Amino acid sequence: MLKILHYINQFYGGIGGEEHAGHLPEMREGAVGPGTAFVAAFGADAAITHTIICGDSYFGENTEAAKEAILDMVREVKPDLFLAGPAFNAGRYGFACGTICDAVKAELDIPVLTGMYEENPGAEAFVDKMHIVATRDSAVGMRDAVPKMAKLALKLARGEKIGASIEEGYMPGYMRVNFFEEKRGSERAVDMLLAKMKGEPFVTEFPMPDFDRVDALPPVVDITKAKIALVTSGGIVPKGNPDRIEASSASKYGEYDITGVTDLTEATYETAHGGYDPTYANVDSDRVLPVDVLREMEAAGKIGALHNKFYTTTGNGTAVKSSAAFAIEFAAKLKNDGVDAVILTST
Known about the structure:
With about 350 residues, the protein is α/β, with parallel strands linked by helices. The chain has helices spanning about 35-40, 55-60, 65-75, 90-110, 120-125, 140-160, 165-170, 185-200, 280-285, 290-300, 320-335; strands spanning about 1-10, 25-30, 45-55, 80-85, 110-115, 130-135, 225-230, 235-240, 255, 270, 305-310, 340-345. About 40% of the residues are buried.
């Protein structure tokens, strides 16, 4: 039976959410959290003998120390394969999975595998260094991700020949593998053309990169007469999060009136964001959305006016397509309200 060592973050390890993101690396015997699903998928072929749990913030802020501690654990176990995640669209988790897999592969020569959403920053950073199974953008896709990852994990652990990305389910970019199509290229091209003309679904064999190019607008001529608006992906919301904006993978944005508001106090505002330590933002949300400073500038005549509404969502794991859709919608509102410039704040 193959021996698998599984890496997960503090959330999937059952330790806690963001308040425990500083959790130091620890190793437990057996499968934990999503590892139990992998155990079922492996059947009698493999076992998760140990699980390593590490907080996302700890790994990101102490990367070298975390790597060394985890590598020592891997040396102790001597697994046939190191499995990480899946991280879906959680950026820090994806960074950790990619980084530690890269280290295990390079320094210990042990096969590795992770899984994440294609827009995860970890995928972009490590797709050319290892097999990364493509997953959905949230844990809703766990049921789909586990069988694909388990199947490829077994092949990697056994040292079997790995097929093309389209056959095995990993993201293109790590390795090129030749395979034979049932139809020749001309037939496939005609089939795709006919499907496109009929409005039917088809998948191109050569996707072109889509680069988002935004031309810079001219500078504000006179800032002392300009109406300035605030927009944030830092998740600042009125106390209680009335619109229930998700802490991760947001499906909506909020629009809130700040007429007469000069200070975002602890009693009136907070952050809904799940991707950073909320302590300082909850104590004083002006740290993320600087209403207080802009009110001072407004009173001093340094800007014309602060717009009476701000727009907010959580950038944590939110898909680029969703973010662009939000922006198109509220940008039209800002323009209609005569806003001259926007200050976009993050975390």
